[in-house]
Structures are given as C-alpha cells and as structure tokens.
Amino acid sequence: MSALTPFHLAIPCRDVAEATAFYRDVLGCSLGRASEDWIDLNLFGHQLVCHLDPNLGPDGQVKLVHSDVDKHAVPIPHFGVVLSMDDWQQLAERLTDYGVKFMIEPYVRFKGQAGEQATLFFKDPSGNALEFKAFKDLNRLFAID
C-alpha cells in the first residue's frame, strides 16, 4: 500500500463567508484559493472546498438521514478525518470551547476491541455532518475482531 495522500472533498454551503468563518475560526483550517462562490480549506492536510449552493437558502441546511450505530443516530452522509488521539482531544476541547452543539458527544466506542476509537459528530452551519475520530492503535483502522 502506498503512502496516504490528501483527499479532496467538495461540499455545499449556504453562505461562503459563514462557511469560511466556521472552518477557519472554529476548526482552525487555513484558507486557500477562493471566489465569491467557493473557498478552498486545509482540513488537517486535506483539501475541503465549500461551494455556494443557492438551493440551501439563508435558513436552509443539507438534508440528512440517520443510521442506528452503537445506539446513536449517526447522520448520513457525513465526513471527517482520522486524527491522532492527542489531536482529537484538542479538537474536542476546541469545539466545546466554541460552544459547538454535538450531534453525538465525544466518546470512546468498541472499548477493548480491535477497532477501539474515540469519535464525535457535529454539523457545520450549512448542516453538513462531520465526524472526527482517533484510534487507540491507528494500525487497527481496518481491523476485525
């Protein structure tokens, strides 16, 4: 398997300035190229692009459905990054300090199993669901008990 390379993900937003402020100020992303209709962001080394979607409107949000996982309503779709445990803890604290409302509060799942991981879920201002996780042992990312 070759070394990991950054992913590119483009998502809708209802307001580019609002998305910029959230991803820059709350998540700590650095800014890249931009126009009136989109912004490039460095999301933990990955390229995230927020594109203006006029169908969302000023009060609109991305529509989500949910799947029952671990007795939690996990939003679909969602995206995020696997972080180191230290970076995940710092992010969880940063989100809490900014008053971000969690869809699923930070917790550790699969305790004592091969896939033991810390996870948390929240939405950006446009309703895009994000999950950030960290594994006790990153080498077990795809492990099966």
From TrEMBL:
<dbReference type="InterPro" id="IPR004360">
    <property type="entry name" value="Glyas_Fos-R_dOase_dom"/>
</dbReference>
<dbReference type="InterPro" id="IPR037523">
    <property type="entry name" value="VOC_core"/>
</dbReference>
<protein>
    <submittedName>
        <fullName>Glyoxalase</fullName>
    </submittedName>
</protein>
<feature type="domain" description="VOC">
    <location>
        <begin position="5"/>
        <end position="135"/>
    </location>
</feature>
<dbReference type="Pfam" id="PF00903">
    <property type="entry name" value="Glyoxalase"/>
</dbReference>
<dbReference type="InterPro" id="IPR029068">
    <property type="entry name" value="Glyas_Bleomycin-R_OHBP_Dase"/>
</dbReference>
